[in-house]
Specification:
Elements (H helix, E strand, L loop, with lengths): L1 H18 L4 H15 L2 E10 L4 E7 L10 E3 L3 H9 L3 E3 L11 H6 L6 E8 L2 E11 L6 H40 L3 E5 L5 E4 L1 H7 L8 H4 L4 E3 L2 H4 L6 E8 L5 E10 L2 E8 L1 H42 L4 H30 L8 E4 H11 L1 H7 L2 E5 L6 E4 L1 H17 L7 E9 L2 E8 L33 H11 L3 E7 L3 E9 L13
Parallel strand pairs: 14-16
Antiparallel strand pairs: 1-2, 1-6, 2-3, 4-5, 5-6, 7-8, 7-12, 9-10, 10-11, 11-12, 13-15, 16-17, 17-19, 18-19
């Protein structure tokens, strides 16, 4: 009884010692010393399982020398390999008479093995390895020794597994820290509340962060975020693009992406001040040129129409009214192109935000078709309008949405070379979205071009020769409007079979998407 109590006290002490070790090498040395101590053995060894090769190797072996480090045992090979395979402990008090015993290690180390007590180490049903007590002092190993070593092995397995996990986490943290620190882009790690846990040097410099703890709210305080921080880190969003701008004391523009991860949020930011400045210059230039063209174009088209009427009444030569008519027609066409360019540059301005008000998607679509009625009649397009039985209420900047619908319909007609142009304009409900689908029977768009058509000034190569009017701004305009409303645009096209563009906008009162979400 006294011996049992002593063993229990020893195991409790062992548990305390093992749980205090997280360094794997130090822990394994402690395991060896304690393994020999708990069963009163001369020495001990720990063999761990290599998960890749499924072989046992000596992680630590007291007194067995460097030779043990070279030994590898397959499952079922030798005494330790058998214990690992069967998961059953073994007492071998006369190793010389056991056919599984090999004296190779003894010969290399000069150590004499007489008896072995081997016990598997398992945690959560998974084999970690085998612990061996070697040469019982003062007699053979007993079943009581076996039970004691089994209890020890259970504690050792948990401690080794924890130490391995800690080592792995430390290594991964080091790798992450190295990558995080060496990144050229600014990176910020924040908890779910928005308190900053870690920021790399680039982020500290860009946001002016000190060493004291702070939050994303305070870090971005001098900047204007689009979308705002609460919307950016809202519960339903897993990844969002955002922009941060500051005008004073110097201009600063940051482009970023916030990604939800297990511990909170990872924000990657890049200084795009110079790129933004160049874009602003381009927009200013285009807007200026467009405005400068408006006045002379208004004079040209206005006087051309007056001359056309006058010449038709007094001129005997039909060429004069025809020439003036051509000037008037081309002037109106150029004026329409300038209007489109002005509309797009206004949309690209950093000061533009959609004025969202309650409206119905079908009302906006009908208004767009009404404004296009005269042009559609001239082109001879056959427009088929399909609508649902239910209303599709949305929050939208109606003027911008009407212009987007007009662009979709114009594209569907212009890029159809067939004599009879058929376009289906359909509105419908898709889950929490109000959807607009515009389908044409034109030539279609090749697969490699389908993403590029949403880039400004891009037209499919074979059309970029002048016979199709436009700047290549129709679909980019649509995408910008839809993105600003928290919606999405999908394009499906097959060469020679036409194109279908689907716009989805959140139904009013639904929270499936957030207006203002960046694409």
């Amino acid at each position: 009884m006294a011996q049992t109590e002593e063993a229990l006290e020893l195991l409790l002490e062992v548990g305390r010692l093992l749980s205090s070790k997280l360094d794997l090498s130090e822990l394994l040395r402690t395991v060896l010393e304690l393994a020999s101590r708990v069963v009163d053995a001369e020495t001990a060894s720990v063999l761990l399982l290599d998960d890749k090769t499924q072989e046992l190797y000596f992680a630590q072996a007291l007194g067995l020398g460097d030779a043990a480090a070279k030994v590898r045992l397959r499952l079922g090979e030798g005494i330790a390999g058998t214990v690992a395979k069967t998961l059953q402990p073994e007492i071998i008090n006369e190793v010389g008479s056991d056919p599984r015993w090999s004296a190779q290690t003894d010969a290399a180390s000069g150590f004499k093995t007489r008896s072995i007590l081997a016990v598997p180490m398992r945690v959560k049903g998974r084999l970690l390895g085998v612990v061996e007590a070697i040469n019982k002092s003062g007699g053979p190993f007993s079943k009581a020794d076996l039970r004691t070593l089994e209890g020890f092995a259970a504690q050792a397995a948990v401690a080794i597994d924890n130490a391995r996990l800690f080592s792995s986490l430390t290594e991964e943290r080091f790798k992450l820290g190295t990558i995080f620190t060496e990144m050229s882009d600014a990176a910020v790690l924040a908890d779910p509340r928005g308190d900053i846990l870690m920021a790399n040097p680039a982020a500290r410099q860009l946001l002016g962060l000190g060493e004291e703890p702070t939050s994303l709210r305070r870090a971005f305080e001098p900047l204007v975020l689009k979308p705002a921080l609460p919307a950016l880190l809202s519960g339903g969003v897993t990844e969002s693009a955002f922009e941060a701008r500051r005008k004073k004391p110097t201009a600063l523009t940051l482009s970023g992406r916030a990604t939800r991860i297990e511990v909170g949020w990872l924000l990657i930011l890049r200084d795009v001040t110079e790129e933004s400045r160049k874009e602003d210059l381009k927009r200013t230039f285009l807007s200026l040129i467009s405005h400068k063209l408006k006045t002379p174009l208004a004079s040209i088209t206005g006087y051309a129409e007056v001359l056309q009427d006058e010449l038709a009444a007094v001129s005997s030569k039909p060429i004069f009214p025809k020439a003036v008519g051509a000037i008037s027609q081309q002037g109106r066409k150029l004026s329409a192109l300038v209007d489109k360019l002005l509309l797009y540059t206004k949309l690209e301005s950093s000061d533009w935000t959609p004025e969202l008000r309650p409206c119905a998607l079908d009302d906006a679509v009908d208004a767009a078709l009404k404004q296009l009625q005269e042009w559609l009649s001239e082109t001879g397009a056959d427009i088929s309008r399909e609508r649902p039985d239910e209303a599709l209420p949305i929050l939208a900047d109606e003027d911008a949405l009407i212009a987007a619908v007009k662009n979709l319909v114009e594209n569907a007609v212009k890029f159809d070379a067939k004599p009879r142009k058929r376009v289906v304009v359909r509105t419908l409900r898709e889950g929490n979205d109000a959807a607009l689908r515009v389908k044409d029977n034109g030539c279609g768009i090749p697969p490699e071009e389908q993403r590029r058509v949403f880039s400004r000034f891009h037209q499919v190569e074979r059309y970029f020769t002048g016979q199709v009017d436009g700047w290549g701004l129709g679909l980019p305009y649509v995408k910008k409007v839809v993105d600003s409303h928290g919606g999405s645009v999908e394009l499906r096209s097959t060469p020679a079979r036409g194109t279908t563009v689907t716009v989805r906008l959140p139904l009013r009162g639904k929270t499936a998407k957030t207006a203002g979400k960046a694409s």
